[in-house]
């Protein structure tokens, strides 16, 4: 039984400090939550542990206020210390089985996958959902070649856990993912680089709801 509900995966917001301007990350995340983000992943590559932990606690509070699952990218240790809802790990970070041993049975574990084989392996080892991509070319991962949407569909059909499409998704191309079988989309700049974060989240959510329903 997966620890995350399919409907929680609809609009999965991944944080990025690149577009903070005069706002704090927490302010931006709250805007996204007000706009309808259904899941939040805190991704920090360059903060020291103390600052990361402080920020994680702050954003976790917000997610609880809006009743939205909160996971941390890669950092299993901080996720455990603050009691986050779970973690998201890449293929090379730590395999799902050993993360599950550390976090226990009730936490959400998300794993990145780009092939049917990786997807099945992650599911077998206890992943609750998969992040699959990059489905379009993306500026956040320069070296990521876009994944054929046929493969995305094959992955969705091969596993019984929710699949979230990630990578280069925007308001302009999101409808191209129709018919793939995804439970939702994970976005960074499509929310956080927008002038009006709340409105951007709201529009994206409506578009994805349309795709997922079909």
UniProtKB/TrEMBL annotation:
<dbReference type="InterPro" id="IPR013785">
    <property type="entry name" value="Aldolase_TIM"/>
</dbReference>
<comment type="function">
    <text>Condenses 4-methyl-5-(beta-hydroxyethyl)thiazole monophosphate (THZ-P) and 2-methyl-4-amino-5-hydroxymethyl pyrimidine pyrophosphate (HMP-PP) to form thiamine monophosphate (TMP).</text>
</comment>
<dbReference type="GO" id="GO:0004789">
    <property type="term" value="F:thiamine-phosphate diphosphorylase activity"/>
</dbReference>
<dbReference type="InterPro" id="IPR036206">
    <property type="entry name" value="ThiamineP_synth_sf"/>
</dbReference>
<feature type="binding site">
    <location>
        <position position="112"/>
    </location>
    <ligand>
        <name>4-amino-2-methyl-5-(diphosphooxymethyl)pyrimidine</name>
    </ligand>
</feature>
<comment type="similarity">
    <text>Belongs to the thiamine-phosphate synthase family.</text>
</comment>
<dbReference type="GO" id="GO:0000287">
    <property type="term" value="F:magnesium ion binding"/>
</dbReference>
<feature type="binding site">
    <location>
        <position position="168"/>
    </location>
    <ligand>
        <name>2-[(2R,5Z)-2-carboxy-4-methylthiazol-5(2H)-ylidene]ethyl phosphate</name>
    </ligand>
</feature>
<feature type="binding site">
    <location>
        <begin position="138"/>
        <end position="140"/>
    </location>
    <ligand>
        <name>2-[(2R,5Z)-2-carboxy-4-methylthiazol-5(2H)-ylidene]ethyl phosphate</name>
    </ligand>
</feature>
<dbReference type="GO" id="GO:0009229">
    <property type="term" value="P:thiamine diphosphate biosynthetic process"/>
</dbReference>
<protein>
    <recommendedName>
        <fullName>Thiamine-phosphate synthase</fullName>
        <ecNumber>2.5.1.3</ecNumber>
    </recommendedName>
</protein>
<dbReference type="InterPro" id="IPR034291">
    <property type="entry name" value="TMP_synthase"/>
</dbReference>
<feature type="binding site">
    <location>
        <position position="74"/>
    </location>
    <ligand>
        <name>Mg(2+)</name>
    </ligand>
</feature>
<dbReference type="GO" id="GO:0009228">
    <property type="term" value="P:thiamine biosynthetic process"/>
</dbReference>
<feature type="binding site">
    <location>
        <begin position="188"/>
        <end position="189"/>
    </location>
    <ligand>
        <name>2-[(2R,5Z)-2-carboxy-4-methylthiazol-5(2H)-ylidene]ethyl phosphate</name>
    </ligand>
</feature>
<comment type="pathway">
    <text>Cofactor biosynthesis; thiamine diphosphate biosynthesis; thiamine phosphate from 4-amino-2-methyl-5-diphosphomethylpyrimidine and 4-methyl-5-(2-phosphoethyl)-thiazole: step 1/1.</text>
</comment>
<keyword id="KW-0479">Metal-binding</keyword>
<dbReference type="GO" id="GO:0005737">
    <property type="term" value="C:cytoplasm"/>
</dbReference>
<feature type="binding site">
    <location>
        <position position="141"/>
    </location>
    <ligand>
        <name>4-amino-2-methyl-5-(diphosphooxymethyl)pyrimidine</name>
    </ligand>
</feature>
<feature type="binding site">
    <location>
        <begin position="41"/>
        <end position="45"/>
    </location>
    <ligand>
        <name>4-amino-2-methyl-5-(diphosphooxymethyl)pyrimidine</name>
    </ligand>
</feature>
<feature type="binding site">
    <location>
        <position position="93"/>
    </location>
    <ligand>
        <name>Mg(2+)</name>
    </ligand>
</feature>
<keyword id="KW-0460">Magnesium</keyword>
<feature type="binding site">
    <location>
        <position position="73"/>
    </location>
    <ligand>
        <name>4-amino-2-methyl-5-(diphosphooxymethyl)pyrimidine</name>
    </ligand>
</feature>
<dbReference type="Pfam" id="PF02581">
    <property type="entry name" value="TMP-TENI"/>
</dbReference>
<feature type="domain" description="Thiamine phosphate synthase/TenI">
    <location>
        <begin position="11"/>
        <end position="191"/>
    </location>
</feature>
<keyword id="KW-0784">Thiamine biosynthesis</keyword>
<keyword id="KW-0808">Transferase</keyword>
<dbReference type="InterPro" id="IPR022998">
    <property type="entry name" value="ThiamineP_synth_TenI"/>
</dbReference>
């Amino acid at each position: 039984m997966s620890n995350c509900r399919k409907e929680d995966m609809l609009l999965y917001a991944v944080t990025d400090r690149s577009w903070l301007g005069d706002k704090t990350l927490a302010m931006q995340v709250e805007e996204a939550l007000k706009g309808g983000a259904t899941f939040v992943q805190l991704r920090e590559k360059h903060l020291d542990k103390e600052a990361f932990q402080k920020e994680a606690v702050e954003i976790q509070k917000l997610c609880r206020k809006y009743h939205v699952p909160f996971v941390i990218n890669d950092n299993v240790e901080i996720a455990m210390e603050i009691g986050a809802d779970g973690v998201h790990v890449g293929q090379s970070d730590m395999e799902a089985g050993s993360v599950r041993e550390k976090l226990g049975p009730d936490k959400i574990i998300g794993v990145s996958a780009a092939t049917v084989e990786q997807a099945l392996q992650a599911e077998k080892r206890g992943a609750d959902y998969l992040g699959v991509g990059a489905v379009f070319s993306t500026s956040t991962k320069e070296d990521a070649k876009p994944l054929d949407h046929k493969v995305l569909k094959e992955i969705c059909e091969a596993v019984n856990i929710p699949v979230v499409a990630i990578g280069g998704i925007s308001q302009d191309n999101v409808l191209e993912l129709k018919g793939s079988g995804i439970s939702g989309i994970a976005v960074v700049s499509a929310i956080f680089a927008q002038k009006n974060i709340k409105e951007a989240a709201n529009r994206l959510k409506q578009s994805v709801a349309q795709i997922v329903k079909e």
